[in-house]
Each structure stands twice: as C-alpha cells, then as structure tokens.
Amino acid sequence: MYQLAGKRILLGVTGGIAAYKAAVLLRLLRKHGADVRVVMTRGAIEFVTPLTFQALSGKPVHTELLDLEAESAMGHIELARWADLILIAPASANFMARFANGFADDLLSTLCLAANIPVIIAPAMNQQMWLNAATQENLEKLKFRGISIIGPAEGDQACGENGPGRLLEAEDIASLTAKSFETNILTGSRVLITAGPTREAIDPVRYISNRSSGKMGYAVAIAAIEAGADVSLISGPVNLPEPERAKVTNVSSTAEMYKAVMSEASRTDIFISAAAVADYSLESISEQKIKKLNDSFELKLKKNPDILSEVSAMQDAPFSVGFAAETENLETNAQAKLHSKKLDMIAANHVGDGQGFDVETNALTIFWKNGQKQLEQAPKTKLARNLINLIADQYNEKNSNKTH
C-alpha cells in the first residue's frame, strides 16, 4: 500500500459501536507508513477512550475545539494545514447531518470546514438510519461538495438487524484511502526528476556542496508517481528512502548528474530540475589529502555545465521545469531564469527564516509564460502534489496547442 508512505492523515472518530474498529484502522494506516493524528468527538469518547488511540498513534489525541493547551501548540487551523487528507471512520448519521449542513460546533466538524484537502467519510449506523430519507439527503449534499463516501457494507449489525450500514473492514478503508492519492493526470507520461545536492571533490576526503536535503525533489517524484507517470529520479547524495516504482540513479558530482540526465532527456516528456546543482567545480582535484601547511590557500573553480539550460535548448525539448532558491528579489530573479533558460515553468522559494533547505515545509511561487500561482507554506509533500497538478495542467495545455 505504497501510497500511504509519508502521508499525513487526520483520522476522525465519531460516536457509534463501530468506533472500536478505528483502532484497528489506525494500526493499519501506520503499518503502511502514514503519519496519523486522531480527532475524537464527545460521542466517540463514550465508546473508546482517547488513551487507546494515543497509545496506538504515539501522538496526543485531539478532542476539544477550545483546548487552550492544544491551541498553544497546534490549533485547529494548523491541524487542518498539517494534514494531507481527513478520514472519518466511523462517521455517524449525526456527524454526516452536521457536516452536510455546515455546523462547526466541535473540533472535527470545524476541521472539515477549515481544511482545503480531500475528506473521506466511512459511514456506520443502523440500517434504518442509513436508509432514512434525511440521511440519504445529507449523503447527496456531501457527494455534491466532492466529499468521498466509502461504504457502508451490508450485513449483521450490533443491534441484531441486517442490512446496509456496517463500517467497511479496516483493510478496505485503508486500501481505498491509499488509492485516493492516485490522480492519473500524468498517466503515460515519462517524467525525469533531479533531486538533492551535488558534491564537487577537493581531494579524496573533502568536497564542496550545499544544504539541499533532497526532500522536495523526492516529494515531487512521489507525487508524479501518484499522478500515473513513469518516473526516473536522478539523485545526488541524500539520506532518504528511494521512492517505490521510480527508476533511481544515484550520482555525486554535477558532471555525473549531467551525464545521467542527458542520457535520458531525449526520451522524456517532462523534466523537473529540483536538484541544487553546484555552479562550479574544482579546476583540478588533488590526488592526495591537502595538508594544513599555510594559514590560507585558494581553490580555483571552473563553471559546471548548466544541465537545465541544455535540456530546455534541445531540438525536441521536454516540458522543462526549474527551481529557484532565492535570498532576495524572488520574483525578479525567478522570472529572469524562466526566460533566459527558455523554461516552461519555474518554482521559486525564499531561503532562510525557516524556509528552503533542511525543513519539512516550504512555500512556492510558480511562474509560467502567462501566469503565476502562490502556494502557501505547507508540508513539502502537499506542495509537491499541488505543483504536479499545475505542471500537468500546463503540460497538457501546451500539447493541446501543438495539435491545433
């Protein structure tokens, strides 16, 4: 269930006898790599204690909308921004009614209204409650708003009746949740991505490099895979697990990255240059470790090939996307790079003050020929999915224009 690896899921638990099954679901989500935080309604607490979910998740359980202690750390708005998806299992008839009608009188309903992310609901209730016209009306309202409904199943119920209203099994909920991350907007496309830093050797033990962790590039690779693309990832030295279903080539220097990219670029539909490539390398590399003999010494550098420029200048160039990490004049510098390198799109971000390298979150401003879009501060995984959506839109539009 690869699509859950690294995903941030808010698991909402509402009141009902099926609430105990949410504990099994939580363990399964975590087993497949998801980072899960639990929000419980007051009704849910009557069936299962918050301590159960805290022990299984390893995280505090959120229960109160106006919890001053929780607000000082991560309030309901921050919690909504943290998540990639909200999964409500079980969802009672009462919760569905309140959500359908825009109520925000507890933490879970408030989160659902505040979150600009997918929401999945797994209903569980008595079969007559499920079939009631009011519940079916609320169901249609939620579907109309784009809320995904999974289940319910049919079968024997705790009340002794038989019919629709059983919570789906945890394995089915987890599987459907994983599949929800697949968009297929790039199905059939070949995407080549570079990520991480490069290292330019000084001598056998020293090198010049930068602070890139590779997290953004790897997140983009995972998002492209979820979008259905055939992904090749050329990675500098990083401490990250290789994305499943990606062809990964590990390199160290800019020269190695250049060679790897150029060997694949002609077979690529989309090239995303997320790596922090060294602009210069040593003119000559010492064969032996340089000894500390003087108070100072000089390194003579030569300019490295511009990988992104060379790819975008190809006769039948792929749709080319660059990154620009800037400490000042972000828009001016990014726009200049967009035009000088003849790119289709560029993603620019500020470096410093908690943004850019070595952090889990970032903010991006995306520029293309006739537009731009600001992606607010968010986890890099979420930014990557939003970026891939924009790339797919512009890539498909460009290809559409070619055929007319």
Account of the 3D structure:
With 404 residues, this protein is an alpha/beta fold. It has two domains: 2-179, 3-Layer(aba) Sandwich (Rossmann fold), CATH 3.40.50.1950; 190-402, 3-Layer(aba) Sandwich (Rossmann fold), CATH 3.40.50. It is built from 15 helices and 19 strands. The strands form five sheets. The protein has an eight-stranded mixed beta sheet, with helices on both faces. It has a five-stranded parallel beta sheet with strand order 2-1-3-4-5, sandwiched between helices. A two-stranded antiparallel sheet has the order 6-7. A hairpin with a 5-residue loop joins strand 6 (153-156) and strand 7. Helix 11 crosses helix 15.
* Spans where pLDDT lies below 50 across 5 or more residues: none
Number of helices: 15
Instruction: Report the helical percentage.
Output: 25-40%
Number of E strands: 19
Q: Per CATH, which architecture of the largest domain?
A: 3-Layer(aba) Sandwich
Strand content: 15-25%
Find the structural class using helix and strand composition. alpha/beta
Instruction: Compute the CA-based radius of gyration.
Output: 25 Å
> How many distinct domains?
2
Reported for the largest beta sheet, the result is:
8 strands, mixed
Q: Strand order within the widest sheet?
A: 12-11-8-13-16-17-18-19
Mean pLDDT: 91
What sort of overall outline do the alpha carbons produce when their principal axes are compared?
A: elongated
CATH class of the largest domain: Alpha Beta
Cα distance spanning the termini: 40 Å
CATH superfamily of the largest domain: CoaB-like
The CATH topology of the largest domain turns out to be Rossmann fold
